[in-house]
C-alpha cells in the first residue's frame, strides 16, 4: 500500500491552499455577513481551474483524477464553506450529470462554458414535499408534440440563480413505469426558458456566501432533446450523482475540520490564562489530539473512497460512510474549536464562529446523516 500523493497532487494542494489563503480568506467573513455571492472570487476560482475538475480536456475540463478534485475542494473548505459549496456543487451536481449522462450534443453545448466557470448549473432534486424521499418527486414533465411541458417546483437548489447560472438539471415524473411506480427522468432546463423562474433564497444560517434557489415551473416548455439519457433513468442517475456528490461533501467536512483544527491550535498556543498558553492544560491538549486523530482517520476513509472511484470500483457504501463520518468529524472539530476560543469563538471576528454554522449543512445536504446510516445499513445487509 502506498499512501503518498503524486507530485501533481502535492502541487495542486499547495497552490489551492495558497489561493484560498490569499484570495478567499480576506473576503469570506464579509460575504457571509452580507449574505453575498462573489462573482470576483468565482472568476478567480474558475481561473485556477476549479470547475470541470474531472472532465476530460476534450470538453474543456481539467482532466484530473477524483482524488485531486477532492483535495482541491478540501483546501477551499479549509478556509471557507460557502466557496467550497460553489465548487463542490458546480462540479458534482452541475457538471457531472451532463458529463456522465449527456449525449454528445449536450456535452458540447454546455460543458465548455461550465468547465471554464463562465457559467454555473444547478441540480434540482429536492421539493417541498420530497426531501430525503427525493424519489417521491411531484414535478411533472408531460410530452406534447416535440416538447416536454414541466409543472412544479424545487427548493434549496445550489448555484441556480446567480447572474451566471445557465440552467438546471431537474428530476421529474415523466409518467408511470410498468410496475405502476413513478417513472423518473432528468431534464435540462436553460435559464430564461419561458415558464421557468429561479429565485434566490435568503436567510440561511450557513453557506451564506453561496447561492441557493427556489425553482418554479409553470407550463415550461423545453425541447424533447433536453431529456438527459434515457427516459426513466432519472432515479439511477440521481443515485450515481449523489455518490460522487457525497465525496465532495465529505471533502468539505474534512477541509472544514482541518480549518477548525489549524485555527484552534494557533489560538490555543497564543492565548494565555493562569500565566501559560491554554494549549498546555492537558484537557485542551487532548481536545487538539482528538481533532488530529479524527482528521487523520477521516482523510484515510475519504481518500480510500476516491481510490475506489478512480479505479472504477463501486463506491456507494464507502461514499455514504465518508460523507457521514467527515461531516460528523467536522461537527466535533468545530465544537472543540469554538470551545478552545472561549467567548471569542462566539464572535464574528473569529472564523471558527462561521465554521461552526457552516458545518451544519454537511449533516443535512445530499442525504442527511440518518439517510446515510440507512444507506450503509442496507449495503451491509443489516436492513
Ligand atoms: C443550503 C442548501 C443547499 C442545498 N442544495 C441542494 C441542491 O443543490 N440540490 C438539491 O436537490 N437539494 C439541495 N438541498 C436540499 C437537501 O439535499 C435537503 O434539505 C436534504 O436532502 C433533506 O431534505 P429535507 O430538508 O426535505 O428534510 P426531510 O427529508 O424532511 O428530513 C427531516 C428530518 O427527518 C429525517 N428523516 C427523513 N426520512 C427519514 C427516514 N426514512 N428515516 C429516518 N429519518 C428520516 C431526516 O434525516 C431529517 O433529520 C440543499 C439544502 C440546503 C439547506
Give a written overview of the molecule.
The chain is of the alpha+beta class and 383 residues long. The chain is 52% helix and 17% strand. It has helices spanning 7-34, 39-48, 66-77, 81-101, 104-115, 234-270, 282-310, 316-341, 351-362, 369-379, and strands at 120-124, 140-144, 147-158, 165-176, 182-190, 196-200, 212-223, 227-228, 272-273, 276-277. Helix 3 packs antiparallel against helix 4 and helix 4 (81-101) runs antiparallel to helix 6. The longest helix is centred in the middle third of the chain and has 37 residues, at 234-270. The model has no long low-confidence stretch (mean pLDDT 97). The protein binds flavin-adenine dinucleotide. Flavin-adenine dinucleotide is lined by residues 89, 93, 122-126, 131-132, 156-158, 204, 207, 212, 361, 364-368, 370-371, 374.
Amino acid at each position: 500500500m502506498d499512501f503518498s500523493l503524486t507530485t501533481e497532487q502535492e502541487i495542486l494542494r499547495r497552490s489551492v491552499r495558497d489561493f484560498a489563503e490569499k484570495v478567499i480568506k480576506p473576503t469570506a467573513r464579509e460575504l457571509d455577513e452580507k449574505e453575498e455571492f462573489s462573482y470576483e472570487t468565482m472568476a478567480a476560482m474558475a481561473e485556477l481551474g476549479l470547475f470541470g475538475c474531472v472532465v476530460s480536456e476534450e470538453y474543456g475540463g481539467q482532466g484530473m483524477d477524483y482524488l485531486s478534485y477532492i483535495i482541491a475542494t478540501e483546501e477551499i473548505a479549509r478556509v471557507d464553506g460557502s466557496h467550497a459549496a460553489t465548487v463542490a456543487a458546480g462540479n458534482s451536481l452541475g457538471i457531472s450529470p451532463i458529463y456522465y449522462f449527456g449525449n454528445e450534443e449536450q456535452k458540447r453545448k454546455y460543458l465548455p462554458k461550465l468547465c471554464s466557470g463562465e457559467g454555473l448549473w444547478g441540480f434540482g432534486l429536492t421539493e417541498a414535499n420530497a426531501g430525503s424521499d427525493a424519489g417521491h418527486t411531484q414535478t411533472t414533465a408531460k410530452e406534447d408534440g416535440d416538447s416536454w411541458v414541466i409543472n412544479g417546483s424545487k427548493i434549496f437548489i445550489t448555484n441556480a440563480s446567480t447572474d451566471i447560472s445557465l440552467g438546471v438539471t431537474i428530476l421529474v415524473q415523466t409518467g408511470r413505469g410498468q410496475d405502476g411506480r413513478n417513472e423518473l427522468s432528468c431534464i435540462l432546463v436553460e435559464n430564461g426558458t419561458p415558464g421557468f423562474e429561479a429565485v434566490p433564497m435568503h436567510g440561511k444560517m450557513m453557506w451564506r456566501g453561496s447561492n441557493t434557489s427556489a425553482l418554479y415551473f409553470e407550463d415550461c416548455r423545453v425541447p424533447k432533446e433536453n431529456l438527459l439519457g434515457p427516459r426513466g433513468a432519472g432515479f439511477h442517475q440521481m443515485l450515481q450523482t449523489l455518490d460522487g456528490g457525497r465525496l465532495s461533501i465529505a471533502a468539505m467536512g474534512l477541509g472544514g475540520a482541518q480549518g477548525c483544527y489549524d485555527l484552534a491550535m494557533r489560538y490555543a498556543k497564543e492565548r494565555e490564562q493562569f500565566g501559560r498558553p491554554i494549549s498546555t492544560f492537558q484537557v485542551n491538549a487532548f481536545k487538539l489530539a482528538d481533532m488530529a486523530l479524527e482528521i487523520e482517520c477521516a482523510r484515510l476513509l475519504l481518500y480510500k473512497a476516491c481510490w475506489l472511484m478512480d479505479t472504477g470500483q463501486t463506491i456507494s457504501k464507502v461514499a455514504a460512510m465518508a460523507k457521514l463520518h467527515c461531516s460528523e468529524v467536522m461537527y466535533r472539530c468545530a465544537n472543540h474549536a469554538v470551545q478552545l476560543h472561549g467567548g471569542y469563538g462566539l464572535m464574528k471576528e473569529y472564523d471558527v464562529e462561521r465554521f461552526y454554522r457552516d458545518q451544519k449543512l454537511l449533516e443535512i445536504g445530499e442525504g442527511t446523516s440518518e439517510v446515510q446510516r440507512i444507506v450503509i445499513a442496507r449495503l451491509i445487509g443489516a436492513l
